Structures are given as C-alpha cells and as structure tokens.
Amino acid sequence: MSDALHPSRMGLESLALEDWLKAQPGDEALLTQRTNLIAAHASDVLAALPEADAAVAELAALLNVETTGGSLPTLARLGRAVAEDLCILTAAEDGYRLTAGVLCFPNRWRLAEKIGGNVLAVHGPVPDYAASLSAGVDRFMTRLRPDRAFIRSNWGLVDRADLFVPEPTPAVDPHGAAHFFFRREDQSFRKLPDSGAVIFSIRTRTTPWEAVPADRRAAILATIDGLNTAWLGYKSIDRDRAGRA
Predict the structure, then answer these.
(1) Which of 74, 140, 172, 195 is spaced 20 to 30 A from 230 at the CA atom?
(2) Domain ranges of the chain
(3) Maximum alpha-carbon separation in the chain
(4) Contact criterion met (CB below 8 Å) for 169 and 160
C-alpha cells in the first residue's frame, strides 16, 4: 500500500500565500458551473450562521469582493469569484465549527446537514477520524498562524464527471471495465488575522480514469487493495472487487 495516498494521512504541505486561491487554467468553465449552481441551488450550496458574519466580511475584503447585503449574498459573490469551495470554521468551546460556506462541488454530503457542527461532527462518517485524526487536526487549526497556509490532496473514484454530487453514488469497481473517473480535491487551510476563522478551501477536478498517468493509477489501485472494509465503504468502492486485479 502507498502510505502517501492512504486517505487517513493528513499530508499537509506549506503553500505560499500568493498561491492561495490562485487562478488556474480552466477556471472559466468552473466559474460558469458555480454561477449556475448558485442561481439554481442556492439553498444547497450556501449557508451562514450569524457568528460567521465577521469572518465572511473579512474574507470578502481580503479577496476584494463586495460585502453588501449580508453574509449569504457575500458568499454567493465569493462563490462566483473563485473556483474553490470555501468553508469557514470559527473557534468555539467544542473546537472549530463550520459556520458558513459556499459548497458548489460537494462529494456526497450536504452543507445544510453539516452547518453548525464542530470539525469532529462534520467528519463523523470518516473512518478512524475520531480515534486517529481529530486531535491532530484540532491542534493544527489552533496553532495555524495567519501568515502561513497549508495544502493537502484527497482523492476518490466516482461513476460520473459531475462536480455537484450531494447524494451517495454507486460503488465503483476499480478493476472492472466500466467507465469511471478519478476525483481529486486540493484542500487548503488559512487563518484570517482579525476574526481568527480558518478558511478551508476545496478545489475539485475529475479526470477519466484512463487519462490518469499509468504510474498514478497503479499507486491508487495498490492503496485501494490495502484499504479495510470501512474505508472502502466510505470511499464508495466496490468491496467485493477491491483487491482482485
């Protein structure tokens, strides 16, 4: 198994502040999708609690986005301005809580169902999170300084190219003949200096499995074949086929 690709690994790397939310080739198509989703599914992709108002305004000012109308209209503008999804985590007695966000490209979860929960609750379905990752993630966010940013990658296999996937999807057979996609999420963390909120961003892209470089496919399959049943279920990978090359 490739430890570097195991889903339980945080794998944080330093990210230069000038590269945070930096535009990339292909963003025009993503921004069009985001604009359409915000118009058609606002209640699904936007959410804000009052305790996030200061952080939303601070983030908007940082990104030169207009703040009139309150947090939800501001989040809509943010969602149309950058290709990444943005989740705002604010400090509370029980750890950082998800108090606002614009989530156009969810991967089998709904913002409305997670809003208000602390990071442990948000990650409730993730195998091993409570036992192995929760304490480390909480320490990382508490110690994160506003002059630093970090990034990590997450991956999955999905049966569709769509980026807006709020519902569970059919399990993928990684060794089968059916067409499927490699879904990658580049996730970054940055703390705002005034509000102290942590901005968790997610840049999502899908690639046809056959277009993924061969060495990368081999490493992913090796990782999949070493995953336990809980991780296979969480990743929506066919449990009967994983491990049978």
Answers:
(1) 140
(2) 6-167+183-208
(3) 56
(4) yes
- Token duo for residue 145: 């300084």
With 0.70 as the threshold, say if the pTM is over it.
yes
Alpha-carbon distance of 157 to 174, in angstroms, equals 8
What token pair was written down for 22?
């930096």
The DSSP call for residue 27 is H
Contact status, residue 158 vs residue 168, Cβ threshold 8 Å: no
Cβ atoms of residues 163 and 192 within 8 Å: no
Angle between helices 71-81 and 27-40 (to 10 degrees): 150
Distance CA 127, CA 110 (A): 18
For helices 71-81 and 53-62, angle between their N-to-C axes, nearest 10 degrees: 30
Q: What is the pLDDT of residue 3?
A: 62
Distance CA 208, CA 3 (A): 24
Please tell me the predicted confidence (pLDDT) of residue 245.
39
User: Contact 182/212 with Cβ under 8 angstroms?
Assistant: yes
The whole-angstrom separation of Cα 121 and Cα 17 is: 29
166-199 pLDDT, tens digit each:
999 899 999 887 899 999 999 999 999 999 999 9
